[in-house]
Design brief:
alpha/beta; 7-stranded mixed sheet
């Protein structure tokens, strides 16, 4: 049985590199349909992609997250390869990634970045990625060393059960957490990561995008782990209440009076607010489990990939 394979390339002002990326993936995966979604580029990205034989579509809402979510909703395939259009990822390993996804019946396979040149994967990006990946591993489970890689292979089950909520570069965080929350079969392999070609500039902002990703993690913790989130608020508010109440209680014990009446009211209100957060966390935790079960049922309703299926994959595709 032949399965449908799609290569998805979100693009914004990548005229310098998109031709190389489309050509490399068409050679590596000749049976695949290559899609390029142009995100309001001001250069010749769209024209170059079409000239190289890609199916060109456009997404007017700015941001990589919007583009990926539109791709997932519109494109019908059995296996999806998602890659950035900046020519920093190795197209020659794509057949091996697809084979591994099929052989191990995975839902997501991440190509973790391995860069020989320090300028290809800057220290600030590497450090931030390590910190964010460690945070997600601690909260949602230890699975990935490179949570922010832009090179992934997905099953149809993953793509059609993914909730489209992200807008920018935090899309990688949401993809990772969705897989962990759904307890999908996932894996990670090291692949080469190259320096951007001359004339190509990165769209990443180390601190701006890092802050957005951190904020996304906080939102997802609130939505997916509400008891943990609101229990943390309870602990903080309860600690503040006890800190405020301590001198009031000491003075009451010594004199039998409460001269700091406003402080006593504030301490009481803070403790009540803390218990309200705890109650909200317990209620929302039940709601969250119900939502997770519904998403899991939707995920299971999509047929799994047949490991016996095949693609026309060259054994040694050119680099």
């Amino acid at each position: 049985m032949k399965l449908r394979l799609a290569v998805l390339i979100p693009c914004y002002n990548e005229a310098t590199t998109i031709g190389q990326v489309v050509g490399d993936f068409r050679r590596a995966l000749p049976a695949a349909q290559v899609y390029v979604y142009d995100n309001n580029s001001a250069d010749e990205t769209a024209a170059v992609a079409e000239r190289e034989g890609a199916v060109l579509r456009r997404e007017l809402m700015q941001g990589k997250g919007h583009v990926v979510c539109r791709m997932f909703s519109e494109i019908e395939a059995d296996v999806y390869v998602l890659v950035d259009g900046d020519a920093t990822y190795d197209a020659s390993v794509a057949p091996a990634l697809v084979r591994q996804l099929l052989a191990e019946q995975l839902d997501m396979l991440c190509a973790a970045r391995r860069a020989d040149a320090p300028s290809a994967y800057r220290l600030g990006h590497r450090t931030g990625n390590r910190l964010l990946s460690g945070m997600v591993s601690w909260i949602f489970g230890n699975q990935f060393s490179d949570m922010l890689t832009g090179y992934r292979v997905f099953s149809r089950r993953f793509v059609k059960s993914f909730p489209a909520l992200s807008s920018g570069f935090e899309i990688e965080t949401q993809l990772t957490i969705h897989a962990l929350e759904m307890r999908m079969r996932v894996a990670e392999v090291l692949t080469d990561y190259f320096e951007r070609p001359s004339g190509s500039t990165s769209k990443l902002r180390t601190f701006g995008d890092g802050w957005r990703i951190l904020r996304t993690i906080a939102y997802l913790v609130k939505d997916e782990r509400p008891l943990m989130f609101f229990s943390s608020l309870f602990a903080a508010l309860a600690s503040l209440s006890l800190l405020l109440a301590f001198p009031v209680l000491v003075e009451f014990r010594e004199t039998g009076l409460v001269p700091r009446f406003p402080t006593a009211i504030l301490a009481t209100g803070t403790m009540l607010l803390g218990f309200l957060c705890l109650a909200c966390g317990m209620i929302l935790d039940t709601v969250s489990k119900g939502r997770r079960e519904a998403r899991r049922l939707h995920y299971l309703a999509t047929p799994a990939l047949d490991p016996g299926s095949a693609f026309d994959l060259p054994d040694n595709p050119p680099r």
